[in-house]
Specification:
Layout (H helix, E strand, L loop, with lengths): L7 E3 L15 H24 L8 E9 L3 H4 L2 H9 L2 E7 L2 H6 L7 E3 L3 H13 L5 E3 L2 E10 H9 L3 E3 L20 E4 L1 H9 L23 E3 L5 H13 L11 H11 L4 E4 L4 H6 L3 H4 L3 E4 H15 L6 E6 L1 E2 L1 E2 L3 E3 L2 H12 L1 H9 L3 E2 L10 H8 L11 E2 L5 H11 L9
Parallel strand pairs: 2-3, 2-4, 8-12, 9-10, 13-17
Antiparallel strand pairs: 1-2, 4-15, 5-15, 6-11, 6-12, 6-14, 6-16, 7-8
Length: 418
Amino acid sequence: MTSPVRPVTEEPRLAVRRQSSSGRPRGLLVLSLIALATVLVGVPVLAVSGNALLPFRQVEVLEGKMASKRDFFEDEHVRRILLKHHIRIHITSTGSREVAIRDLSSFDFVFPSGQPAGDLITSERAAANQYAKIHRPFVSPIVLATYREYAETLRDAGMATVQPGSGSGAEAGSGGGSGKPLYYVLNMRKFLDSVAGGRQWSDIGIQRHGITNTNRILAQSPDVCTANSASTYLALVAFTRRGGGPAVPDTEREAEERAHAIKPLMEQGLPHADVFRTYISPEGKGVAPVVVAYEHQYLTYQAQFQAEAGKLDSDRVLLYPDSQFVTQPQFIALNRDGDRLGELITEDPELRKRAMELGFRILDPAGEVAGDQLSRFLKDRNIPVPSVHSDTRTEIPRLRLLERMISIVGDCPPAESG
């Protein structure tokens, strides 16, 4: 498929015209020198901002649609690196599943946060004989972000344990694990049993940690109709609350029955972009004490907090489900221009390094997590290194069955490409 003609922007050109000096007023010469000095001073400023790195080369503007992975493309350092490759990105932000069910004709690439939405896009485009090429630059596991008082309450109730080596003290970055823990392992079966039983935070002793909360124990997720994190959490809940049935539904009837069974356990409502922002806001503890998030969001937040405050935010912590499902973000190029960008973010050393600095676990060409770059980065900043190892790997239903479950749990229409 031929790439569409797209607008380009060109950096300003400076033209110097030779003139005779005879008869030139002295004042005009002074003004000319002032103007030249202004230009010379301005060039370094533009170079630092990334706007004059390549003054005479065309810069291509690519259109992309994505959800949480916009954090990567909105990073100023990433933008400067891409500009050196003559690329600028314009982002349309939406939930990952919504990426998959809307018209994509005006976009060069999409970047859904997980495999279900990615599979939906590629299957639809394959059926229509449309261009689609997948790149997998990095991963980020699903976590439950919460506050220390709630994590310790879950620990008191036997639903959570401290992840070894997760202390937030001064020596934590060296692997000593001193200080207050930042990471806990959540027993999903016990947690969901409490959710299903309608237990309140006050029932399991939250007041012993200085908080009054008579609300039900729940994990707040974005809208499952639009967000990949919510549909991934749905798969995690369905896998855990399977009773005597198969690990994942294998027929449409099983999918419908499982979806109706777990629907009361799913708390949705916040827009996909606002869940983590709410969590790190001063009001977050009272609005949504446990939220579904991605690991990279939390690690980026802690790195920024450390840089600004000189310490970690030991009040905000993570719960890692004991049955783990690592999301697989898929960068999907919709034309050859998008494919060039996909190759860059997958192979360019600067972009890979920056992805790691933003908390992502970068992948090698075989699709495996590449070495321990993230661990070294976190240790250098005295941030404990989390572990995502689990004895239980969550299985996810086949795409058609997962879509049926999403439509039931979220009361949303089945996905249809726009």
